[in-house]
Amino acid sequence: MDIATLIGIVGGFGLIVATIIMGGNAAGFIDPPSAVVVFGGTFASVFIMFPMAVVLKSFKIALKGFFAKSRDPKAIIDQLVALAETARKESLVALEKVAIDDPYLKKGVILVADGTDDSIVRSIMEIEIDFMKKRHFQGQSVMKGMGAMAPAFGMIGTLIGLVNMLSNLSDPDAIGPAMAVALLTTLYGAVLANVVFLPLAKKLEERSIEESLYMEIMVEGVIAIQKGEHPSIVKEKLQAFLAPVMRDDTA
Q: Which residue from 103, 165, 190, 244 has the highest number of Cβ atoms inside 10 Å of its Cβ?
């Protein structure tokens, strides 16, 4: 689990709830009709904006913000260097016998072992990166759409509440509570957008960038192996993807 995501969401809601409790009227911030307008309207709008299959799939993608485990790029580089050493000492065909857990890397290595032209290997692997980005972009777009719609439906709920309030001006004592309820929908929409949907969309974007980096490292490593480059050269080349502080100076 991504502890940072959990800390952010729990911390965000915790601060808001704590502030409400310190104000001394927590019950006044609970209004089911307001919640129905914001939650229901937000979900309804994304089903209009996107096909149902995309929306349902986006919820699965959103879990990456909570459960995706970051991989160590140095470990990936070390594995590619080891593959380069195997190919240099034995042959490219010998790579077929090497146990590789990552299916993407395994696909590239099998293509190389089968004698596929390097331009075709690169093309196949880069196509998969492109479509991975498109799948991730759809999930991000749904979260961003919900982040945009939640405050909008909050405002709609507020306007509904104001209309109801203004239609009952004959009772001055009811104006204050009615105004408070009307504003709750705006609060709900703003909280959902800025604590959940928009931050989660950004986290998914960062996850996608991170995954693309790992895959690009694999592409360059596989192509370098196919060209028969020396393992030390492969390592130097792949470490260019890393920040200087992460690089192995002994390469």
A: 165
Tens-place pLDDT, residues 10-23: 999 999 999 989 88
**Euclidean distance between CA atoms 103 and 122, whole angstroms:** 16
Contact 77, 235 (CB under 8 A): yes
Which two tokens mark 239? 């470490």
Count CA atoms closer than 13 A to 110's CA, side-chain side.
Answer: 11
Q: How far apart are CA 215 and CA 191, in angstroms?
A: 35
Both structure tokens of 137: 């972009």
Is 168 within 8 Å of 126 (Cβ atoms)?
no
* Number of other residues whose CB lies within 10 A of the CB of residue 248: 12
Q: Helices 172-191 and 32-49 sit at what angle, rounded to 10 degrees?
A: 40
Whole-angstrom CA distances from 51 to 108, 143, 172 are 33, 14, 47
Q: For the whole model, what pTM was predicted?
A: 0.83
The neighbour count for residue 195, using CB atoms within 10 Å, is 18
Residue 50's SS3 state is coil
Rounded distance, CA 114 to CA 95, Å? 10
With contact defined as beta carbons under 8 Å apart, do 225 and 87 qualify?
A: yes
pLDDT 10s digits, 155-174: 998 998 888 788 777 777 76
DSSP H/E element including 78? helix 73-89
Closest CA to 179 of 192, 160, 156: 160
